[in-house]
Write a structure and sequence with these properties.
Elements: E1 18-20, E2 26-29, E3 33-36
Length: 66
C-alpha cells in the first residue's frame, strides 16, 4: 500500500541518506554532513523503515473470540 507523500513530513529523520544520532536532535547525512533532524533538502528519499508503525487498537474486554 502506498502512502501519500502529503501525509509524511519531509524531514531528515525520515530520509534514506541520514543516520539519526540517539538522544540528540542531530542526523549525519551521507551527502551534506551533520544536520538537524528537522531539516530537509532536495535530496530527500523516504525510508519507510524509519517511520513509526501505527499501533492496532486493542479489542474491548467484552469481545469474545471463537
Amino acid at each position: 500500500m502506498k502512502r501519500k507523500q502529503d501525509d509524511i513530513e519531509r524531514i531528515c529523520a525520515h530520509c534514506e541518506q541520514a543516520i539519526v544520532v540517539k538522544e540528540s536532535d542531530i542526523c549525519i547525512c551521507k551527502l551534506i554532513g551533520a544536520v538537524s533532524a528537522t531539516d530537509n533538502c532536495r535530496h530527500f528519499k523516504l525510508d519507510l523503515l524509519k517511520l513509526a508503525p501505527v499501533p492496532k487498537p486493542m479489542p474491548d474486554e467484552d469481545t469474545i473470540f471463537m
